[in-house]
Write a structure and sequence with these properties.
Layout (H helix, E strand, L loop, with lengths): L1 H20 L16 E6 L5 H19 L2 E6 L3 H9 L5 E4 L1 H10 L2 E9 L5 E2 L1 E6 L6 H4 L7 E4 L5 H12 L6 H4 L2 E4 L2 H9 L5 E5 H8 L3 H7 L2 E6 L3 E2 L2 E5 L4 H13 L5 H13 L2 E6 L6 H17 L1
Parallel strand pairs: 1-2, 1-3, 7-8, 7-9
Antiparallel strand pairs: 3-12, 4-12, 4-13, 5-11, 6-9, 6-10
């Protein structure tokens, strides 16, 4: 089963690369009357493509089966590409972290219909900075900004990997990571954690959701995570969101809403299976939401823009 899924990952990634570099051709999801709708569901895998496919495939298979829609999982290499794919209608449904969700609303004709809830019932998470355990690096030493240390940051559009550290740590001190460190490397959360564990960078951003993956992940992930420690944590952030395009057929939207909002709530073997699938994603359920829940992120974006303008 795992080999089949990984083989599927390779094929989907190849198809995605071709599709996302092509010009938008104006196709809309749907088809002739009575024909099944075809939708692309996209994620940007913060913890790596193989894990993302393993974790999301069971849910997507259930989504296709229970709604009668043909849904294809697509992995996006970064958040910018994911927003562009939705803007060009190459993706109709997607899982976004909070910051790129705001961009998708503003630039890609998208809207929020659900948010994620973690295994402890929380709808928020935090950004963190990891350092190698036992090295004695503190946040005070890190923020000395003497250009002697190396730092790993997230995707430019990552809420916890970039926006939150800038908003709550760097901007209040009037500095940027580039001004502080000898070298700044950008990578996804998993790569940043491994870079810290292996001594490739002195510290790097991550988030509390990612830490849960590493604690309970593969033996290799657990061993690497055990070599790190948290030296900084942000205020809480809104958890990730589910978005679809506004121009989807209203009946299709309602099918998607009902699927996600009821997923994992049934009793008996079917509900147990769905809850196990959610646990792969470190979620307990999806909760109804709209664009308004992203208001804190909008304020963070404004504050970051003001800080950048002041620094110029």
């Amino acid at each position: 089963m795992i080999r089949q899924i990984l083989r599927r990952t390779f094929m989907m990634s190849a198809v995605a690369a071709l599709a996302l570099t092509a010009a938008a051709c104006g196709e809309k999801s749907g088809g002739s009357a009575g024909a099944p709708q075809e939708l692309v569901f996209s994620v940007q895998p913060a913890e790596g493509a193989d894990l993302a496919t393993l974790h999301w495939t069971p849910l997507i298979e259930d989504l296709s089966r229970k709604t009668g829609l043909k849904v294809t999982l697509r992995l996006s290499p970064n958040y910018t590409t994911l927003v562009q794919a939705m803007a060009h209608n190459q993706t109709q449904l997607a899982w976004f972290s909070a910051l790129p969700a705001v961009e998708a609303i503003n630039r890609a004709d998208a809207e929020v219909f659900a948010r994620t809830v973690d295994l402890e019932g929380r709808t928020t998470y935090t950004s963190v900075i990891l350092a190698r355990k036992g090295k004695g690096l503190t946040i005070e030493k890190l923020m000395a900004c003497d250009k002697t240390l190396t730092f790993g940051i997230g995707d430019a559009k990552s809420t916890s990997g970039t926006l939150a550290p800038k908003t709550f740590l760097f901007n209040p001190k009037g500095v940027t990571p580039e001004n502080c460190f000898k070298q700044v490397r950008s990578a996804n959360h998993q790569a940043n954690m491994l870079a810290v564990a292996n001594g490739l960078v002195d510290a790097a951003t991550n988030n509390s959701t990612g830490l849960n993956f590493y604690r309970t992940g593969t033996p290799e992930a657990q061993a690497a995570f055990a070599k790190t420690e948290v030296i900084w944590e942000s205020p809480t952030l809104p958890e990730s969101a589910m978005l679809y395009r506004k121009d989807l057929d209203p009946a299709v939207k309602e099918k998607l809403r009902q699927f996600f909002l009821t997923y994992g709530t049934a009793t008996g073997p079917e509900g147990d299976k769905e809850r196990a699938n959610l646990q792969l994603l470190k979620y307990s359920k999806f909760e109804a939401a709209d664009d308004a829940y992203l208001a804190p992120i909008i304020e963070m974006v404004k504050a970051d823009a003001a800080a950048e303008k002041k620094a110029q």
